Amino acid sequence: MIHQPSVEIVRMSTSPYKDQKPGTSGLRKKVKVFQQDNYTENFIQSTLLAAGNPKTLVVGGDGRYFSKEAINITANICAANGVDKMFVALDGILSTPAASCLIRKFGLDGGILMTASHNPGGPSEDFGIKYNSNNGGPAPPSITDKISTIASTLDEYYTIKPAIKLDLSCLDIKEFKVHDGITMRWFSVVIINPLDYYTQLMKEIFDFDMIKSQLFGKSRVTPFRMSIDCMHGVMGPFARRILVDELGAPASSVVNDIPKEDFSGKHPDPNLTYAPDLVSKLRSDPHIEFGAAFDGDGDRCMVLGPSGFFVTPSDSLAVMANFIDQIPYYSSNLAGFSRSMPTAPAVDRVAAAKGLKVYETATGWKFFGNLLDQAFISLCGEESFGAGSSHLREKDGLWTVMMWLNIIAITECNVKQIVIKHWTQYGRDYFLRYDYENCDAEQGERLMDHLQQLIKDQSIVGKRCLCGDVEYEVESIDNFSYYDPIDGSVAKDQGVRIFFKTGERVVFRLSGTGSSGATIRGYFSSYRAEHVIGDPEKVLSPVIKMGLKISKLEEFTGRSKPTVIT
Ligand code: VG1
Ligand code: CO
């Protein structure tokens, strides 16, 4: 007979923390901050209250340090707060897209994800908690604002005694009798393997047999070689299952596939700076045709072609948009596309050619949720290595890989050929992002205040500046607001945009995913209908110079160089 332990609800007094304000994607702080007395308990209690006391949840995360403790804390608080059923991922390993998949598949009320995504992990690094709603997507600002409001005055939370300690290492169902002194209810915990459900979803979208035979079948003259770097994040088991077990790629195609609590001491951020091993592997072995790297929680993906040919995420989105109607899952009811404001508008050109609408949102996946739910869009993405579609409500790194493999299979071209052909047809949006990490919070504020002042007095509009032999004229400067066409909500001050008469654009905004200080992001773009083969640094050099001059970035930060260029 299964033992069904009895637990009792207890009320605990606590003191509020004033800093529990979710950023672009959840609450991210140093592990030590989450380890403070009741810090995690308070945040989970506030989240459950703000979310309207969900009854069914999925819980898991990117496997980083402190995840298991946080999952257990969450289980105890959920049991005491009226949750009936909690699905927990095996070993706590749940990619962000797989969480979205499970919420939608089982019709759950929401999900609690232990992730700080691309931020480093380990005892002295970052931890994070994010709430997803019943559509499978990140909670909208209406909920995240409520979480911080509740957290700022919270003086009690509810938990159970004796405390539950979950064994996450095997598939299991556990039922607990929860008493509050008067009544009794059941709380069940189901440990599941998310791989099965996610794989099934991928099979609904993609023709596995076709991709398998085109890329890994015997008819191919030279075997297709790829290298997929999981960066010791959550994606190892997912990539191995789908790419190796299902599609038949050689086992060596997937590397760094064991999830580690500290991502092996590295920064699980898939870009040219933080994934140098993959880049040099492709550069030194021209026979590897395709490369990809994921971030810690598996929603971001960097795509590389032969010899390390780099595909900007803005171009990757545009190429996927160009081919999406060749995939039956999408072609029958193709809707529009969407991109975050800082993302270069390459996808807009594809939409125009296909007669589809494009929506420009604020930064952060939560802004795509309504558009996807109302079927306004089929595909969306951000310049920060995230793309996704109507199949889920999160960006999805492995889906991005599958899209590219599908495009390679149907075109019989490599990544570089596909992208160059795209530029030849549509022109090229040269794009670079400069990140200035670890600035002081005041430095970031002073820069944004200065830009805000320029918006107020508008004196730079019409100003001309000679760079080399080209004269640039500022056409407009503003701070982007996103108006949600579905619920009418407005997200203000989402990034300062400076447009030039000749079409160039510079954007500055502060990151909302850091755990301390400030990261300033500068985004520079310029379109060329012709001259599509060129070095972005050279092409964008005048735009970057103007942007840095107008913003006085060096004066405010003392930085002459960014920490990361993507
Ligand atoms: C960054 C990216 C943004 C992305 C967010 C969450 O936000 O710019 O596009 O949605 O990270 O991605 P910010 O505010 O730091 O610029 V993830 O993969 O870290 O959840
Ligand atoms: Co992520």
From TrEMBL:
* NCBIfam families linked: PRK07564.1-1
Q: Does the keyword Magnesium apply?
A: yes
In its UniProt entry, what is this protein called? phosphoglucomutase (alpha-D-glucose-1,6-bisphosphate-dependent)
UniProt cross-references to PROSITE patterns, sorted A to Z: PGM_PMM
Q: Which family does it belong to?
A: Belongs to the phosphohexose mutase family.
Question: Which top-rank group of organisms is this from?
Answer: Eukaryota
User: Nuclease as a keyword?
Assistant: no
Q: Where does this protein come from, organism-wise?
A: Fragariocoptes setiger
Q: Where is the Alpha-D-phosphohexomutase alpha/beta/alpha domain?
A: 20-156, 210-305, 316-426
* Keywords linked to the UniProt accession: Isomerase, Magnesium, Metal-binding, Phosphoprotein
What cofactor does its activity depend on? Answer: Mg(2+)
Its UniProt entry gives the catalysed reaction(s) as: alpha-D-glucose 1-phosphate = alpha-D-glucose 6-phosphate
Enzyme Commission (EC) number: 5.4.2.2
